[in-house]
Amino acid sequence: MSGAPLVTAAPAAPAEAGTVDGWVRWPDDVARRYVAEGYWEGGPLGDRLRAWAERSGSATAVVAGPPSRPVRLSYADLDRAVDDLAVGLDRLGLAPGERVLVQLPNRVEFVTLLFALLRLGAIPVLALPAHRRVEIEHLARLAGAVAYAIPDTHEGFDHRTLAQEIVAAVPSVRHVLVAGEAGRFTGIDAVAAAGADARAAAAPTSVPSTSVPSTSVPSTPVLPAPDPAGVAVLLISGGTTGKPKLIPRTHWDYAYNAAASAGLCGLTAEDVCLAALPAAHNFPLACPGILGALGVGATVVLAPSPSPEIVFELLARERVTVTALVPALARILVDAAEWEKPDTSSLRLLQVGGARLDAELARRIPAVLGPRVQQVFGMAEGLLNYTRQDEDAELSFTTQGRPLAPADEIRIVDRDGADVAPGEIGELWTRGPYTVRGYYRAAEHNATAFSPDGFYRTGDLVRLTASGNLVVEGRIKDVINRGGENVSATELEEHLLAHPAIAQAAVVAAADEQVGESVRAVVVLTPGAGLTLKVIKAYLRGRGLARFMLPDLLTVVDTLPLTPVGKIDKRELRRRLG
Ligand code: OOB
């Protein structure tokens, strides 16, 4: 028997519901403009899933699980599973506005729990599976999390052991919710089963289960609908300096983010979208990602791991049409595909973003795997830049695209905050209908991270090309001061990558008594290749590089450390090099 539908009532006071402390809103006049211009519209995200299920009912919404035992949920199944879990969580005492730290890998519970929390108006804080004690404790404290959701184990790590430490260290955490074997904690399945029982018990026998239950059935779960203008999720900042920050995204701004991205990518119900990156990251989640795909009735496939074996198997079996990768992963897949010749014939669009993609690798993607490349230069704080599919493919190899929304405002400024001349390099500042006005509970940091008139200072160095697209030239802080001369790490990395013996490169500063900071090139070589500092210096001189730009040190490594989403982790690299 299917239970009574979960009903969400209109919030009592829209201005208050969905409010969390420590959140910087858009100014009223700006908010009114975004509503008037149609950027912000519709209900909260949890309600939207209901509408998608009514539209796409029997179509497959989510495919998850190991390739040998796939789990498939239709849109109707997903909607029901989300209702069960939302009611179960409500019974557990979870209240609207409370924060839940979610650290789930790409398994079906990520999607059901995310939407159950959204329906309840509780706020998911989306940590990545690779985060460990230091980050998780910091995030749980900062968010004041009341619950922490984990897998039992993932990639050989027992998250229940970590949860035990977190519960002991952070008193606000009342519940640990486990996907899989719960041990001493609470199973997500058990919460959903309790919710399903409650819904079944409340189901009115005389009323069809699709209609709104009357007030004569008092035990029917009725949850107040969250305010769509309020905070839906807290994303984690991808910054590689300092501790991660929390980024408050509202139902309206995040729904726009996903739906407009889906429109730009031409997603339809025929598409099959693979989440190979960790689902909690903004890119695979909402650019257009999982949310964008569900919004058009497409199928979402969750890859339990981004290894070539799993990704190739899923591409072929599920006839995947679109996926999103970081450059490091794109390189691994392209390299592996050259040997393994997987069936990638269904793939029409491969999005690459998160870090600089070199043009040579970009060109190999259509040549080896088949699909068009789309570069995505985005940030969890909001702004998304996409290369367009109806433009010259060369632009998608050599630029990072341009803003998604007509209402996105960008400025490229010098050190004093003055606009640079067209085509010059400067720091990118932005504000718009899906870019936050402040980090959560970070008043002090916000004073410098945002301009007084609300622009987010991205810290990215960019230039605008004649084609109207942006090129990312580096990070403001990723510059090495070599005796007073500034060496852009990104620029030197690009030149290094052009050398056939170099597969990956990271340039970092090394302490030097004479020049303060010297330039250290850390490289991974292509199989069988050899390289010396003398050879690489001569090569770079041949490319016309100034003498001060040449590396002082060359370090060859087997692998470079990666961040939880797969970008080269320079902080960790510097730490390792000592
Ligand atoms: C994405 O988001 P985050 O928050 O993990 O990282 C944002 C930062 C940017 O500020 C920029 O420094 C870098 O990552 N970045 C890129 C890039 N895309 C992001 N640098 C060069 N080229 C690119 N294409 O990384 C993210 C969020 C949504 C979609 C895609 C990526």
From TrEMBL:
Question: What sections of the sequence does the record tag as coiled-coil?
Answer: none
State the PANTHER family in the record: LONG-CHAIN-FATTY-ACID--COA LIGASE, NONRIBOSOMAL PEPTIDE SYNTHASE PES1 (EUROFUNG)-RELATED
User: Which is one Pfam family of this protein?
Assistant: AMP-binding
UniProt protein name: 2,3-dihydroxybenzoate-AMP ligase
List its EC numbers. Answer: 2.7.7.58
- InterPro entries to which the protein is assigned, alphabetical: AMP-bd_C (IPR025110), AMP-bd_C_sf (IPR045851), AMP-binding_CS (IPR020845), AMP-dep_synth/lig_dom (IPR000873), ATP-dep_AMP-bd_enzyme (IPR050237)
PROSITE patterns in the record, alphabetically? AMP_BINDING
Q: Name one GO molecular function term.
A: nucleotidyltransferase activity
Question: What keyword terms does UniProt attach to this protein?
Answer: Ligase, Nucleotidyltransferase, Transferase
Q: Which residues form the AMP-dependent synthetase/ligase domain?
A: 50-440
Give the source species. Answer: Frankia alni (strain DSM 45986 / CECT 9034 / ACN14a)
- AMP-binding enzyme C-terminal domain sequence ranges: 491-567
